[in-house]
Amino acid sequence: MVEMRVAGIALDAASRSPIVLLRDPAGRRQVPIWIDQAQAQNILVGLGHDRPPRPLSHDLMVALLEAGGLHLERVIIHAIEESTFRAVLKLRSQDNPGPEGLSEIDARPSDAIALAVRTGTPIWMLEEVVADASIPVDAEADAADQAHFRRFLDSVSPAELVRQLGRAQPENDPSPSDPGEPDTPDEPREPS
Predict the structure, then answer these.
(1) Residue 96 and residue 145 share a domain
(2) Are residues 102 and 40 in the same domain?
(3) Helices (H) and strands (E) in the chain — how many of each?
(4) Which end of the chain is more exposed for a tag (fewer CB within 10 A), N or C?
(5) Sheet strand arrangement including 135-136
(6) CB–CB of 94/71 below 8 Å?
(7) Residue 152 forms part of a structural domain
(8) 96 vs 81 pLDDT, higher one
(9) Three-state secondary structure call for residue 109
(10) What is the pLDDT of residue 159?
(11) Predicted TM-score of the model (pTM)
(12) How far apart are alpha carbons 181 and 98 in whole angstroms?
């Protein structure tokens, strides 16, 4: 999973629809999510430091979570189905910090993002979703990285590459004792 941050709200040049832009930590990839005007306003208010005199819907949702003893632990954007992003809210009960105190609620990404910016909650996105939906932010930097990598590959011998890979592998990394035995895949881990 990749932790994303809200880079801002933009307008689609063709449709004039708002887009929330989520950017990866390296600042190289950006995922655009098309939203409507009301959703854009909810996110913008959450990003701003000025609170409206009366609570808006997402402010009310945050107050209800707090009153119910729930803490928004993280937002996860986990899929794209038929050009629609899917998200879940991971909520933790303040009375029950164990695994049984964790619950998950389906949400629209725009609502999840609006809650996340109000509470300072991290927004996570599956790598597959980032790979499928992202656009490059800095094409020149990407081209420079590719050229640097090509120069590296041209200058290194296969034997040196194997030595470098051997040094990079941790010493306590267990490898299968029987080369014919398949490796078991690691269980997916959630970010801490």
Answers:
(1) no
(2) yes
(3) 6, 8
(4) C
(5) 102-107, 84-93, 70-81, 123-125, 2-11, 18-23, 29-34, 135-136
(6) yes
(7) yes
(8) 81
(9) helix
(10) 76
(11) 0.69
(12) 36
